[in-house]
Structures are given as C-alpha cells and as structure tokens.
Amino acid sequence: MIIIRKLKKKKQKQELEIIDLINNIKYYGTLRGTNAKLSLYKCKEEKDGNIKPIQPSKVMNILKTSKKVYLNNDEESLKLEDFLKQYNIKYNYIELCPFCLIKGRYNELTKNNRYKFYNQYICFDCAMEEVKHEVNINEEFIEKLLRRFKDVNKVIDLFVMKNPLDNPELTKYDILTGSEEDKIKNYTIDQLNIPYELKKIIKNRGIKELLPVQTLAVKGGLLDGKDLIITSATSSGKTLIGELAGIKNLKEGRGKLLFLVPLVALANQKYIEFKERYEKMGLTVSLRVGMGRLSEDKSELINTDINADIVVGTYEGIDFLVRSGKLRDVGTVVIDEIHSLNMEERGARLDGLIGRLRYLKNILKSDIKNNIQMIYLSATVGNPEELAKNLNANVVIYNGRPVPLERHIIFAKNEYNKLNLIKEIVKKEFNTKSKYGFRGQSLVFTYSRKRAEYISNFLNTKGIKSDYYHGGMEYKRRRMVEDNFLNQKIMCVVTTAALAAGVDFPASTVILESLAMGGDWLNPSEFQQMCGRAGRKGMHDMGKAYMLVEIGKKYHAKMGNTEDEVAFKLLSSEPEDVMVEYNEDEEMEQILASVSSIERYSKYLKLVNKNYNHNTNNNIKNNNYNISINKNELNKIPLIGKNHDLDYIVGKLNDYRMIKLYNNKINITRYGYATAISFLYPKDAELIRTNLNKQLVDLIALINPFENLYVPNSIKNKISKIIHTNIPTRFIDAFEIVKENISKITDKDLRDRVLPWVIEFEGMIEEDIIKYFSKYVLNLRINRKTPSQISKIIYENFNLQTYSGDIYSYLENTIKILDAIERIGGIYNKNMSNEARDFKEKISNPYRYNKKYHVKSKGKKVKREKKKNR
Ligand SMILES: Nc1ncnc2c1ncn2[C@@H]1O[C@H](COP(=O)(O)OP(=O)(O)OP(=O)(O)O)[C@@H](O)[C@H]1O
Ligand SMILES: [Mg+2]
Predict the structure, then answer these.
(1) Does the CA dihedral 761-780-819-257 come out positive or negative?
(2) Could you tell me if the CB of 276 is within 6 A of ligand 1?
(3) DSSP helix/strand/coil, 133
(4) How far lies 497's CA from each of 315, 502, 794, 837, in Å?
(5) Are residues 383 and 494 in the same domain?
(6) What is the DSSP string of 441-456?
(7) pTM of the entire structure?
C-alpha cells in the first residue's frame, strides 16, 4: 500500500511525498514540467532515519507496480491527479488526519471516525488533544461528548458557553424514549377480566386503556393470580398494576390487598389516593405505618384497622403484624420499590418480611384455602431475572418510557452560577405550556436540607414562586407543598435527593443542582429515580432533566471523584443489580422474627382447626399456651440474603435466652417475642435488658440519642472564614474545632453567639453532649412543647439549628423505644416497665397533663440546665 500526497507549495516547486507503509520507507521528489508532461526529479529515499538520493525512475517504478495507491484527499494533493493519470497509475482516495501528518503519523479518517475542527477534519486522538488543551475535565467525558458531537469546537463551547439555555442542542446529552410502546397493542379497560365496579372507577379517572407495562403485566398472568415482578420506568403506571390484581382478588373473595412501601410519606400518599378512589366502591382503606402516635397527628382521622379491605403500610408497619401473627385473610401483597432490598438500612428487613409473607402464602393456602398473590414493583432493577428466580415469580420488563426524557448537561462555574441557571430554567419551563395545557414545573434536587431551603428562598427573592420540601419538615407542611404543586400554584419545589423515590410531584423538569446527597455522590439508582421523575404522560409532551455540573468540584475532601467524573459515570450507568447480604445481627433479627411468626401462625392454625368444632369465636388472645415449633420449619422461609449457618444463629439466640432449643424443637421465650416485635437486634435488646436499672431518660438517651444539631449557616461561614477551614455543619463535629479556635474569634457579636457552647459543654465529650440534648428535647416535650416550639427554644438558648421534622421523628422513635422498654421491662423489671408506659403517654400527648415536669436525672450538668430554664 502506497500513499501519495503533495507537501506544500514552495515557490514554484511541487514537492511530493510517497509513503510505503508496509516497508516503512518514504520517498520524496519534486515535479517539474508543464501540465501536459510532468516528470519526477531530485528524489530521495528515507529509511530507518537515513536519507539518500534515489533514481526517479525507481520511484516511478514503485508507483506503477504497487497494487494499491492512495491519494490523500486534501486540496493540494488532489492537484497530483493529472500526474498520476499521465502515467496510468490507478489510485484511490484516502483522507489522512492533517494534525497527525504534522507529527509524522499517518492516520486514516473515515466518515464515522473524523472530528470537525474549524473547517477541517481531524482524528479522534488529535480532537481529544485539542479539547484537553482548552478544558481540564475528565477524559472519558470528553471522549463521550466528542463521539456525540463529532465536532471539537462544539465540545469546547459547551464549557465556555455564556447562555447555555439558548443552546439546547448543545447541552442535550441524549434522549431516552419510549420506542417500544409502538409495538404493544394496549388493552382497553373494557377488555379486562376485572369486576365491573373496578372498571367504572378506572374509567372515571379518565383512563380508557392500559399503558404498555400494564398490558404486559396482564399478558404475564396478572389477572390469573400469578406472582410477578415488574420493572419499568418511573411513573410508567406500576401502581395500577397492583390495584387491578388486588381489587379483583378482593372482590372475588380471595382476601384483602396489602400495599407496602418503604417510606411513611409514601404510605400517606397512597393511603389518601386509595381512600378517595375505593371508598366509593364501599371498600375500607387503612394505614399501618408504626408511626403517628404523637398527639399532633390526631387531628386527621386515620383508619388503622388491620381488617380493612385495603391496608396500606410501610414494610415495618406490616411486618409488625406478621411477626405478631395478626395479619389474616390476605389475597394480594403488592411490594412497591422492591429495589429497597439494596439499601443498607432496609434490605434485610424487607427480605425477611417477603420471606415470611411467602411462607404464609404456603401455609395459609393449604389451611384456609387461600392463595396470596405477590406483586413486586420497581423502576430500577439491573437483574430482574435473577431476582425473579429468587422470589419464584414471573418477570415483566418494559424498557420504554411513558414520555421521552431529554437529558441535558450544563457546566457551571460555581454554586452561584448554578443558582442563576436554576432560576432561568424554572422560569422558562413555567412559561411553556404543554399540548395538554399544563405549565411546566420543576423539581430541584440538592444535597442538603439547608441548601434546599437556601435555594428556594433565593428563587423567591428573584420572583420565582418556589417552596422547599424535605424530611425535616412536619407532615402537614409537606402536604401543603404537595397540594400547591399539584394545583400549579408554585413553579418549583426544591428538595433533597433523599426524597427521590416515590413522592409524587408531577414535574416536567428535574434539575440536579448537585450530584451529591449528604456527604456522598449519588448512586446510579438514585440518579435514575431522580431523572425519571421528569415528564408525566397526559400532562407533558416530554420530560427534561438538567444536570448542573461544576468541573473539578468535590463537596468535601474525602470524596474520591470530582463532579464532572461522577456526571459521566451516572449518565452512562445501568440500573444496579438488587442484592441482599445479611450481617450477623441482621440475620439474628430475621431468624428470631421468623420464629415468632411461625409460632404465632401455628397457634392460630391449630385454633382455627380446633375452634372449627367448638366455637366460631377464634380469639387467640385468651389462649396463651406456648407451642414449640420444629427447627426445620425455618428452612421453609426463603431468605435471599441468608449468610450464616442456621444452627449457629439458632444457637446464639438460645444463648441470649430469646429462644429455648431442645432436640430440634424451638420455643420462643417472652424475651424473644418482645425483641422480635420491637424490631431490635438481639444485641440492642440486651442493651436495654442490662440497663433496666438506669434512670429511664438515661436509658433512652443511650439507645436513642438525639444527634441532629446543626451550626447555623451565618455562624458557620463567619467562623470558617476566620480560622481558614471549612467547619462542619453538624454541631457535634464542629464543636471541638470552634473550642480550639475560640481565641481567634474576636468579633464581639460572633463571640457572644458561640460562647454559650463553650461554657455549657466545657469538658464534655461528644457522647455527653448528645445525651444532654436528648434529655433536653424530652424535657421540653413533656412540658407540652410541640416539635417546632422545641426547635425554636433550642435556637434561642443555644444558637443551634434543628429541624422540627427531626424532632418529630426523634419523639416517634422514642415512643418505639419506650414500647420496647415496656415489653422487656415487663419481664425483668416491672417498675421500669410501668415508668416507660407512663412516660410514653406523656411524650405522645403531654397536653392533657397540667403539672410541670422535669425528667429525673443525676449529674450536675442537667441541674444547671434546669436553673437556666426556669
Ligand atoms: N392507563 C393509564 N393511562 C393514563 N394514565 C395512567 C394510567 N395508569 C396510570 N396512570 C397515571 O400515571 C401516573 C404514574 O403512575 P404511577 O405512580 O403508578 O407510576 P409508577 O410506575 O409507580 O412510578 P414510580 O416508579 O415513580 O413509583 C399516575 O398519575 C397515574 O394516575
Ligand atoms: Mg410507584
């Protein structure tokens, strides 16, 4: 193979280069003569770096005898065509990268592998070089962008653009579409084999036909009682799949519908939704979340009846009923957000719950002629087939999206620049109406609650109607924001990434203000859930997701990658595999819970059979005899995450005296049962049991410390500036640093604000401070303060920020811990048990007590606090 090209116009001389790539020899020569007769002269040969003259005829010979001659396709070289034709040399064209030529390399460009740079094309490597020269950013990213745009200048522009919003074609990274939708012929509601009343209700919602994933589910056996795992994009209509099977089973006498979700906020939403929908049909709907026992909640009447037709609950709320053997007559179990199996805090418990429900499916089937249909829903599962196999279910996968999703990436210079971009995007969206007549609304995700509030306030000062929404807010306040969004009263909601899953804001646009959540980068599943929230079928023509990325940004020193690197990884990420693996504590909890469940249901089934002959009132509460179960029965509860030998775990539970083991027979002890229904790891139950002689508040602070104290932004920023280090937001982490640097804080006002910390907490270690505040919160609560009043008092007395939502959850958790103390105390320390019960009353509803209380405690620190509060 020979390449021939013309070098450059040098006066009148026409120098050319002939490259024999195979033998690695180059020839140079000059053309002379007129266009009519051109000939080669002054030829040189270059081989292994040596240059020597060569006869022109030899070079001509090489050209003439070579099978493949390629002429470089540039303007100058093309002038050689006459010359080649004169000597009857057959040739083809080749396009070489001009930048490579300068460096002495020969790199062929093809239609698919060339990159525009001003008015010429260059190869990929040279294009990369050019971009890297201009912007300092992750290489993979440059590569991806280059391959997409095929244009060096466009890629560079992306990073230096003044008005990115005016260039949607440039910021657009890709579009995820619902292309598969076309192939599926959707069922109409009338076609479905479901009760008439259900059809009516669905049609009243304005739904005439199923969405694709719903159709696929019906084809997969949804209405024939099959167990299914369904994976399809966010807001593709998975809820209705659960309802179709659940209400059908219910109406046909197969038992109630359980709808299980991971979060209380989500359960509330579904509860309200189902109530509005199905009470008309004469069905009862209840809510079981194992929370909501603070008197603040009682204003809204919530049905918590476990015998309702439809029970909406959190995993834990329902597992309580399963562990204690109270759940009956179930026809359908819908488990929403099944990818929660992947979450560290929830995975093991969800796995255990599913195992127990599947066990019930089997034992109840044979005894009361009931079959429970299990339906698992998720938007992000990387390994649906594997998961389906583990759950013994059929799988329904739909990869399309209800509306296309356009993903944009915009590079911002700093956080302030990000704010302005958000403002512009939100404004632009709200000023655009979809063909359905809805204005576009935005959902902004950011890394912390504080930042969410800050951004929302900023937007409001710029005339953008906005509100924030996060887990630190009380339930009623959140409901209000949801309503305002739904009625299009606000243009955008700023929230934390923690709420990415589930909560239903029908936004057209999602803006990822940062790719961090808390102290960590987002993981692919969180990222996909967030982007997936953009665009609603029937409301928007298309969804848009904007990632605002700061090149080189890290939110703290320990983060490995920079924001641009993370952006690239996230954009090209696939859904994560769902996997569970227990640690020893988790496995012990699950096995104990299963023992408890098996024991309760065995008793129940025995009674059902016995009472069948004697009486119809099968109330098991009066029959407190203890029955033993066979150890092998535990093997019938399928657990995906199981990791240890059953004998080992059972042996440990026996050592803890939570069960009694003899010859393969297991009896659960009262202590074991109390531990199981309190959702405690055995070691935490032991912590309670061995500390029952402590003061009650000390015990609560030990088990359930209040840690959510933050340094207000104004103080944090000022101190950070003075001492030249970024001080942490969490008070516990910041305190030591502030204390050490107190002498540097000379500004009187600032000093006055932080001095109370140093004086109050002098000599205390972290643990003591947390304990101090735990008691402080409890003390205010029993003195009839609401969570938001408590938050305010802490601010006034300590210049520390807390969220009323956190205080609310803290009190809710305290109630749960008090349940556990009451139960365990009931076995080992009756006084403590009674005290816990009374205290629980006061925490949940302090308003009915008139007397002023102080929590009992030893130690001088708290005495000082009492004085101060008087
Ligand atoms: N057949 C249908 N036709 C039109 N709209 C529908 C249909 N089925 C459901 N919807 C609507 O689609 C929206 C999204 O549904 P849904 O909340 O069930 O999504 P999802 O798949 O559960 O999403 P996520 O993964 O976010 O939980 C809802 O507002 C719902 O009313
Ligand atoms: Mg859903």
Answers:
(1) negative
(2) no
(3) helix
(4) 21, 11, 27, 37
(5) no
(6) -EEEEES-HHHHHHHH
(7) 0.80
The answer, yes or no, to whether any atom of ligand 1 lies below 6 A from the CB of 207, is yes
d(CA 755, CA 738): 10
Q: How far is the CA of 672 from the centre of ligand 1 (A)?
A: 42
Instruction: Please tell me whether residues 741 and 776 are part of one structural domain.
Output: yes
Is residue 174 assigned to a domain?
A: no
| Number of domains observed in the structure of the chain | 6
The CA-CA-CA angle for residues 776, 781, 785, to 5°, reads 115
- What does the block give as tokens for 838? 């009374």
Chosen domain end from 37, 61, 94:
94
Listed in sequence order, the residues at least 6 apart from 126 whose beta carbon sits closer than 8 Å to its beta carbon are 97, 99, 100, 115, 117
Q: How far is the CA of 501 from the centre of ligand 2 (A)?
A: 9
Q: Does 697 reside within a domain?
A: no
Q: Provide CB contacts within 8 A for 545, sequence distance 6+.
A: 405, 406, 407, 408, 509, 510, 511, 512, 530, 531, 534
pLDDT tens digit sequence for 409-445: 998 888 888 999 999 999 999 999 999 999 999 999 9
Determine the distance separating the centroid of ligand 2 and the alpha carbon of 74, expressed in angstroms: 58
CATH at residue 484: 3.40.50.300
Ligand 2 midpoint to CA 540 (Å): 18
Residues 503 and 486 in one domain: yes
Tell me the pLDDT tens digit for each residue of 804-856. 888 988 999 999 999 999 999 999 999 999 999 999 999 988 887 665 556 65
Closest atom of ligand 1 relative to the 501 alpha carbon? 26
| Residue 235 CB less than 6 A away from ligand 1 | yes
**Residue 187 CB less than 6 A away from ligand 1:** no
The response to whether residue 314 sits with its C-beta less than 6 Å from ligand 1 reads no
> By C-alpha distance, which of 326, 494, 343 is closest to 425?
494
Domain shared by 355 and 462, yes or no: no
Instruction: Note the pLDDT tens digit of each residue in 179-211.
Output: 555 577 899 999 999 999 999 999 999 899 999
Indicate if ligand 1 lies below 6 Å from the C-beta of 401.
no
> Whole domain around residue 141: which residue ranges?
119-166
The domain boundary residue, chosen from 537, 571, 605? 571
The whole-angstrom separation of Cα 720 and Cα 245 is: 57
548 and 508 part of one domain: yes
Note whether 517 and 444 are same-domain residues.
Answer: yes
Tell me if 756 is assigned to some domain.
yes
Question: Quick check: helix, strand or coil at residue 221?
Answer: coil
Distance from C-alpha of 658 to C-alpha of 669, rounded to nearest angstrom: 5
Q: Are residues 825 and 850 in the same domain?
A: yes
To test ligand 1's pocket by mutation, which of 239, 263, 381, 531 has the most ligand atoms within 8 angstroms of CB?
A: 239
The residues, ordered by sequence, that sit 6+ positions from 493 with a Cβ below 8 Å of its Cβ are: 441, 442, 443, 444, 456, 466, 467, 468, 469, 481, 485, 505, 507
Question: Amino acid letter at 257?
Answer: L
User: Is 54 part of a structural domain of the chain?
Assistant: yes
Pocket of ligand 1 contains residue 186 by CB under 6 Å: no
Do residue 387 and residue 412 come from a single domain?
A: no
CB hemisphere CA count around 423 (13 angstroms): 16
